[in-house]
Amino acid sequence: xxxxxxxxxxxxxxxxFLIALIAIISVNVFNTAGPVTGAAxxxxxxxxxxxxxxxxxxxxxxxxxxxxxxxxxxxxxxLARVAELEGAYRDAIYLNYENERxxxxxxFRARHAALESEMANFVSWGSDNWSHSFIIDRGYTNSAIAxxxxxxxxxxxxxxxxxxxxxxxxxxxxxxxxxxxxxxFVGRGEGDSSVTARGDFLYxxxxxxxxxxxxxxxxxxxxxxxxxxxxxxxLPAALVIGEVYEVFPHASGIGRFATVRPMLDxxxxxxxxxxxxxxxxx
Length: 282
Known about the structure:
By secondary structure, the protein is α+β, with helices and mostly antiparallel strands. It is 39% helix and 27% strand.
């Protein structure tokens, strides 16, 4: 057995030596790799091509990863810039709103130089589902408040009227409450025709009030402003009630009525001004 192994080892070693010798002679004599080396190249070509493709694929992956990182960094920069511009835009909107509010307030105060008002804070909404009212922290022991006084924003948007006065708190009905009613002017100019602005239970649910007794000669279209006329002396003139929302013919076929959308969100009230005393101009 040992003799057979020795013979096999000698044969294998001799064959390997012969192949190496032939390769060396081929390279030195014929300046070529010769048939043995060529055969090895042919046999290993698929593996070498596969390795080359894998290397290119990895190169593409790394290039894509680098490009993604670059794009991600640029995206972060752009997002930060967008956030900065959005903040500047919000600031510009707020400043514009404040500017309009102050201009409106100055205009309102200029028209009502003799107006006296008292600030009050919202406490809670009324509990009656058949009305639209709220409680304020002013009553007859801590203010000069009285029933029927108008309640507005600081720049003349009408919110409602004082309905009941208690010792330290009072109830205010809003302009969409069914108990609210006031003489008003409507249109692009005040004109001479007065209408009645009043609350209506059907429209109160939609946050609207009504205009009644619209003269057939009065031109009225959606978007027209509605302001108090001052007639009757209950409220000052030129308090902004809202704008015309829709105009309808009466079910009887005689005359028209309209719905009015308030100029402020009546469900978002924090502080108000009670009109203690006023004098209508003219």
